[in-house]
Amino acid sequence: MRYTTVPITATVAILLTCLFAAPAAGFVASDDVTVDAGEETAVEYDVIVDEDDEVTLDIEDYPDGWSVEDNSTDGGAWSPDDEVFIWLTADDQVLRPSVDVSVPENATSGVHNLTAELTVDDGDTEEAETETTEVTVENGTVTDEGNVSPLTSVVSVEAGGTATADYALDIDEDRTVVFEVVEYPENWTVDSADDDGAAWSSGDESFVWLETDGSILTPSLELSVPDNASAGSHELTTELRVEDDEGEEVTTHRTAVDVEEADAGGDEGDDGEEDTDEDDGADDEGDDDGGDDEGEGLPGFGFVAAVLALVSVALVSRFHHG
User: Fold this and answer.
1) Distance CA 258, CA 270 (A)
2) Does residue 249 have a pLDDT over 60?
3) Geometric angle at alpha carbon 142, from 167 and 35, rounded to 5°
4) Cα 311 to the chain's mean position, in Å?
5) Distance from C-alpha of 35 to C-alpha of 102, rounded to nearest angstrom
6) Which residues neighbour 260 within 8 Å (Cβ) at sequence distance 6 or greater?
7) What is the DSSP string of 131-153?
8) Residue 173 in 3-state DSSP?
């Protein structure tokens, strides 16, 4: 089971800092962001500085192939060559610069770091502080690990559907090989689509080759995704264990599974209307049955009330005559 922690927002962090431990020089914070591969996202910073300080915020480190441009300088200057914000004289305030981060289409899925360094110079001393922003990339590629080279590193499937993940295992001859499914989302099911000569164990969800001949093994897995699966990027984790006379080597691989919302077609809507009509018919039939039962069974309420009224009149009349 996975647990997700919710980070304290930059604004709350700043308030806490001001109340309890406001730094003499400066303070910087940012919120973590999520972006699809091939898309762009904004990263916003909150910077606290003292009056008349010279301030720089340097975007100093991020993954290869990514690009960063200024979005808002908040009164400062942006140097595109150095990728740094500069305020020659800052007021006693909170500065809120931001950058646009462009993520390439071939970016790997997972968490990446964007690092910025805040430098504050008050004329006497210069102090620096580093802020790291976590950028979670979804719908990206998956890095190959060890001997596992996926033919399909990213699999797309609709909620309620099935998809196939293909693998290529480059193994030397005379090895015992186990390729096991280790982890996948709850309520999903995994089965063998192609064992490539291996024995498939549905209990352990693993392929086993007792002896290899040096050729590339190409097993496939079939993934069944439930109707209520959440849209977005999920992970299928597999583990490859290769054993020879000298011992066992273990490598892990993760395949990104992108789940899309099921398309509710027009035919389903028509079927729904037909079902409604049938239900109405059943209700009408039930109403007819209710009427028949009332006529054939015990006397209705109106009849009983009339009888009781006549009896009451008779008793009152007899009392007066008596």
Assistant:
1) 29
2) yes
3) 145
4) 75
5) 9
6) 156, 157, 158, 159, 231
7) EEEEEEEES-B---BTTEEES-S
8) strand
Residue with tokens 């003292």: 50
Q: The pTM is what?
A: 0.45
State the amino acid at position 73 in one-letter form.
T
Compute the distance between CA of residue 57 and CA of residue 78 in angstroms, rounded to an integer: 10
Choose the weakest-confidence range: 17-26, 61-70, 87-96, 169-178: 17-26
Q: Which two three-digit tokens encode residue 309?
A: 């009224």
| C-beta of residue 171 within 8 angstroms of C-beta of residue 147 | yes
Q: H-type helices in the chain, by residue range?
A: 10-20, 266-296, 301-321
* Over residues 23-41, mean pLDDT: 83
| CA contacts within 13 A on the Cβ side of 289 | 6
* CA–CA dist 51, 286 (Å, integer): 81
Contact yes or no for 83/69 (Cβ under 8 A): no
Residue 28, amino acid? V
Is residue 83 within 8 Å of residue 59, measured between CB atoms?
A: yes
Give the contacts of 42 (CB within 8 A, at least 6 positions apart): 33, 71, 98, 99, 100, 101
Distance separating alpha carbons of residues 181 and 253, to the nearest angstrom: 10
- Beta strands 98-102; 40-49: pairing state: antiparallel
**Contact criterion met (CB below 8 Å) for 177 and 140:** no
Distance, in Å, from the CA atom of 193 to the CA atom of 208, rounded to the nearest integer, reads 14
Sheet holding 77-79, edge to edge: 33-36, 126-138, 110-121, 53-61, 84-90, 77-79
Which of 17, 97, 88, 89 is CA-nearest to residue 51?
A: 89
| Cβ-Cβ contacts under 8 Å for 241 (sequence gap 6 or more) | 177, 178, 179, 180, 248, 249, 250
